[in-house]
Amino acid sequence: MYINIVFFGYMAAVFLGLAGIAAMGLAAVSRPFHRTRQYTCVLSFVTCAFLYSLLYFLFYYRENVLQVYELGLGWRLLDYLVGCGIMLLWLLLIGSLDEELVAARRFLAAAVVIVGLRSVFSCIMTGVFMDGYYQIHQSGAAGPLSYVEMLFIVLTILLILYGCWKAARDVPLLMHRIYIFVVSAALILLDLSQAAVNLKLYFGKFGISAWDLHTFDPTGPLLAVIGLATLIFIFRTDFTPIYIAGPPAQKGADAQQETMPQISPLDLAAEKHRLTRREREIMELVYDGLSNPDIAQQLCISRNTVKQHIHNIFEKMDVSTRIELVHLINSEKEMTKYSN
């Protein structure tokens, strides 16, 4: 029963991670599409979460099906690197959702330095001091190494908590804030649970395997929560209107209708809601899925100016989120099609 529950948790995490990668791939091949920094951060994070889930699924399969308990150095290094990588990519993703954190480069620099040093330390620890069962046999080494590892874990958690605190203040979209809080909580619990298991492995408390003792293992469920939350976030965010676009135009339509000049739904929306030329440009970039920093860079204006224009656009069009804006433009598109 225990084996089945844990196995199902890892399978669910792998499936959700793969679904997230597929969803991001669909966004990349859709039209119109611009590879934004936020898109890159989400794609990197969901890919790393999938690798994390797949790696532990393979570990669990080796031990409980193949009865192979010893892990080579390459597998152990990959274990630590993926574990540190998901933390770093999450901190970078928080930064991409919170424009104030992007401006505060010290946060991103601290994330790279702390998680980078943690990765180097973990690789040295497993390569020099550990055997194939994660045990540290050198006399007196397990204690100091454990203290240093816990220090890095605490610093990583503090960075995540700081990112959550900033997101609660700065991130305007409720959906983004909820996503940050849910995934941050899951990653903190995951890091702490892994640390608790590792400490006992270092001192040989679990023997050759913690799973053999039916130790509570929340890794699979927590990774599944991360995968599900990310998948929902992908479908609800605005990388591209692919997920909420109207149905494609039917082939074989009347030839005269096809040759008639088509009015852009963006132009129609801009004219209907009396947008200025600059607001029309920004509305199109928002519709295409660009973030505020990307819009500012493309139009060579400040981020505060972009924020003010988007605020004016939302007021004129009577919407409160980017998703509502895309829905409204798509509805204008449908009305134009049927009117023709």
A few lines on this structure:
This protein is mostly helical.
Order of helices and strands: HHHHHHHHHHHHHH
CATH superfamily membership of the largest domain: Rhodopsin 7-helix transmembrane proteins
| SS element count, helices | 14
Q: What is the helix content?
A: over 70%
Beta-sheet strand percentage?
under 5%
CATH class of the largest domain: Mainly Alpha
Rounded Rg: 24 Å
What is the count of structural domains?
2
Distance between the termini: 62 Å
Structural class: mainly alpha
Q: What's the overall geometry?
A: elongated
Give the secondary structure arrangement, pairings included.
Elements: H1 2-29, H2 37-64, H3 73-97, H4 99-103, H5 105-128, H6 142-170, H7 174-202, H8 219-236, H9 255-259, H10 265-272, H11 277-287, H12 292-299, H13 303-317, H14 322-339
Helix pairs in contact: 1-2, 1-8, 2-3, 2-8, 3-5, 3-6, 3-7, 5-6, 6-7, 7-8, 10-14, 11-13, 12-13
